[in-house]
Amino acid sequence: MRIVIVGGVAAGMSAASRAMRQNPEADVVVYERGEYISYGACGLPYVLGGDVDSFGDLIARTPDQMRARGIGVRLRHEVTGVDAGASTITVVDHASGRSAVEPYDKLLIATGVSAIRPDWAQTELGGVHVLRDIPDGQAIEASLQKAKRAVIVGGGYIGLELAETLHCRGLSVVVVEKGPEVAGRMLDRDYQRRVRAELEGNGVEIRCGTTVESLTGKGGHVTGVQTDHGLIRADVVIVAVGVRPNVGLARAAGARIGKTGAVAVNIRQETSVEGVYSAGDNTESTHRVTRRRVHIPLGLTANRMGRVAGVNMAGGDATFPGVVGSSIFKTFALGAARTGLTQSEADALGLKAVSVDVSSTDHAGYYATAKPIYVRLTAERVTGRLLGAQLVCNNHESVKRVDVIAALLHGRGKVQDLFEMDLSYAPPFSGVWDVLLVAADRLSREIGKKQE
Amino acid sequence: MRIVIVGGVAAGMSAASRAMRQNPEADVVVYERGEYISYGACGLPYVLGGDVDSFGDLIARTPDQMRARGIGVRLRHEVTGVDAGASTITVVDHASGRSAVEPYDKLLIATGVSAIRPDWAQTELGGVHVLRDIPDGQAIEASLQKAKRAVIVGGGYIGLELAETLHCRGLSVVVVEKGPEVAGRMLDRDYQRRVRAELEGNGVEIRCGTTVESLTGKGGHVTGVQTDHGLIRADVVIVAVGVRPNVGLARAAGARIGKTGAVAVNIRQETSVEGVYSAGDNTESTHRVTRRRVHIPLGLTANRMGRVAGVNMAGGDATFPGVVGSSIFKTFALGAARTGLTQSEADALGLKAVSVDVSSTDHAGYYATAKPIYVRLTAERVTGRLLGAQLVCNNHESVKRVDVIAALLHGRGKVQDLFEMDLSYAPPFSGVWDVLLVAADRLSREIGKKQE
């Protein structure tokens, strides 16, 4: 059995490993158009910041390690076409320039996402970058050697992680965001503001409601960003305005693309085309809270989908249970996390949701390292079912307790279930009533009040 | 309606506040034999260590603040008797020495625990202490002024918290433990050893399997601890060998004492005697994993029980859902946490349990601040139901993720449920597969293997 995997990062390599474990007799081949496989793309900002020594440290397994497990790895091989009827792919070897047609029994499309480059960013100017893969990171590293002023376009989590990184390397940093606030897709407005305050408090300039119109350059290098609110000088510009799923190949195979714009699959990661699977950032998943299809490209999800696809392609039977919308990031000392739905997302879906905002301390209030922690907890008004939570704290790790809410969302838990949890307590870890319990108590009273 | 509460710390004051909120017309009186109410006893080691500025910082609410809410507070008033037939108590005012008989409609016994003082510790020698309340803490503080050598008798979490504290204050510290390892009641053997290694690595001497026989003294002050393995010199000795529930008053009221030695109650915190409630460290609770009655005196549990008792005494209807056995502590950089059952506890109960041990990193392996984290995950072999987890890590806060397991135990979740959790991921917070997910994956394979 020949299992062909297109894309060798998170989903692709997880699938390859799993398929091999499931069926050691299978012929598993991974085609990767780039030069690296199996790396932690989420770590890229931290190499630039120095928290990780080198880009090489992000690589979990080398091609030789994969080959030693019997997995074929072809670097700089781009799969440019699929004939699902004939069960073949067309592959171009970028080293030789030659293309070939190869057969498959099962095909996995794990082509990931590409960073969006708006028209103004389609430029030959030096010093203008996106950050998706290791070569992008290396190019930014080279640009930073002489740079003094950075503009980051886009106030999502990658932009905000980079803002810390570049500021801590001594650059002056301006974040330009089109929307009214930073972290716009992740948090409700009040919590977005807390994130912005952390960045501004550390000396990063944030310009929201600002649209980039063009770039200025001199001698082939970028010199500034022209916005609808004036020119911002810059030696280096990072474009972090979002990503777009790479669905060309899936489309060529005849696979259905979902309304989200990503590849539609069933719970076994099968596309609408027999024998063709899709996994990773290019693929939709099911949101367990709303039961809708969503496109939330994140590392853990990609790995999970890859495992499921790998098992199934090799003859096993695995299913992907979907996501609850958990995400987390750090910028400077601040951690921000969310799971489930924000109040604004719930509103947009027409759910009758109610939220409470609680501020407490992450450790016992009297304990030396305690910092304020802010939690918004959201539930369905009539049923009391938990819908989501948002957390912000200046001890970044303290927001990882969002996972308790994620656990409850999986079981469609209620506010009262959260309140009854026997959470661990000692002063260096939390208050006697962990902030999550305080929020649950407050929210259950709020729900009770409205029902009376 | 007259609600009388005996004991003004965690359970008692929670009950008083809740009763008042439930029924603002009620006459709520708290009798506290000591001089302080409403303080965080769990914070005592941290005042001695300097992480908390003063003992006063541990006080959540003063008697005046409680009185301003309409709650009567009588300090240095000891309730010495109960006549449940007549619905009266006998109270001694330690200021005047006078005693009085007072009526009640509802009575709450929240008398807590006392530190055990073995025979050898029944001494008049100066420098010998237990640590249960603020005066104990103040006495230790006074003893520490001139002390150079400390012996802590008992390697439970209070002893180990104090070991860090006293070592960091410059004392040489020896921990003497009768059992074969430290943290004996909390963790399985391998995890106990990791805790000991942390203490020893920091210069604390640990002597396990060592029994104290007597104390030596000179000029009225302790000079050493005589053990079955020789004499250990000491200027200060802290006795932290455990606690015993204060059940004398409950017994006098005719209330049933459970097999655990603590007061037996139903889910409304009612004792076997009409109109008499019990809450807090002197009281049993139900373990949700084993469905047995247990006595696990901890701060959150005490607060919860107090709330439930307060609501019910004032005419409301609340129930206490029980515990899952979560606890957590820090010593030096190390955090240790557990929830549910350890493998040895499961074995002792005759459960067919299986555990896996996983070591990973708390943050992404390549991230600068990542430390090894060790997890033991335990499940019922046949059903795959989760039974418990133990975590140890040298970034102490990273073990707070034990709460995810606690959340699952409440819902009697399975290993597969844990594996499917959409836990939050970014490199400064965890690996892409959080160590809990890695453990769940490993354990589900282990269970599958044995079933084949």
UniProtKB/TrEMBL annotation, chains A, B:
<keyword id="KW-0560">Oxidoreductase</keyword>
<dbReference type="InterPro" id="IPR023753">
    <property type="entry name" value="FAD/NAD-binding_dom"/>
</dbReference>
<keyword id="KW-0285">Flavoprotein</keyword>
<dbReference type="InterPro" id="IPR004099">
    <property type="entry name" value="Pyr_nucl-diS_OxRdtase_dimer"/>
</dbReference>
<dbReference type="GO" id="GO:0016491">
    <property type="term" value="F:oxidoreductase activity"/>
</dbReference>
<feature type="domain" description="Pyridine nucleotide-disulphide oxidoreductase dimerisation">
    <location>
        <begin position="332"/>
        <end position="432"/>
    </location>
</feature>
<comment type="similarity">
    <text>Belongs to the class-III pyridine nucleotide-disulfide oxidoreductase family.</text>
</comment>
<dbReference type="InterPro" id="IPR016156">
    <property type="entry name" value="FAD/NAD-linked_Rdtase_dimer_sf"/>
</dbReference>
<dbReference type="InterPro" id="IPR036188">
    <property type="entry name" value="FAD/NAD-bd_sf"/>
</dbReference>
<keyword id="KW-0676">Redox-active center</keyword>
<dbReference type="Pfam" id="PF07992">
    <property type="entry name" value="Pyr_redox_2"/>
</dbReference>
<keyword id="KW-0274">FAD</keyword>
<protein>
    <submittedName>
        <fullName>NADH oxidase</fullName>
    </submittedName>
</protein>
<dbReference type="InterPro" id="IPR050260">
    <property type="entry name" value="FAD-bd_OxRdtase"/>
</dbReference>
<dbReference type="Pfam" id="PF02852">
    <property type="entry name" value="Pyr_redox_dim"/>
</dbReference>
<feature type="domain" description="FAD/NAD(P)-binding">
    <location>
        <begin position="1"/>
        <end position="286"/>
    </location>
</feature>
